[in-house]
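HUMAN: Would you supply a protein with fold tokens?

ASSISTANT:
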Amino acid sequence: MPWKNIPGSLSRISAGSVTNVWGVNSGNGIYRYTGDDTKAWVAIPGALSDIGAAADGTVWGVNPAGNIFRYVWDSNHWTPIKGSLKRISAGSRTNVWGVNADDKIFRYSGDDTIPWVQIPG
């Protein structure tokens, strides 16, 4: 299948599935792909510098200050999660990885009270 040009301009993009594609632009705007190439992106409230979308519909993000958020679909808002990261990647709601400002690697513990476990490397 050849590549297809989708209108828009993003600095980061994450595709968990064909129906769960999210991105952020250079101004930290958040966008979700609609699946309709005539109006490809819908703006989502908030400001993020990195984003991770998972196959199960989960979306995680990091803002320019390093704050971490998880998107809550049923109420359409971002929930803050303790910690500080500069990059984030999500495979599922509980399979989330990140890198902090010191380039240390972290894995989400699944427990929001102590959310991050440092991984050697």
About this structure: The mean pLDDT is 94. The chain is about 0% helix and 45% strand. Residues 85 and 100 are 4 Å apart (CA to CA).
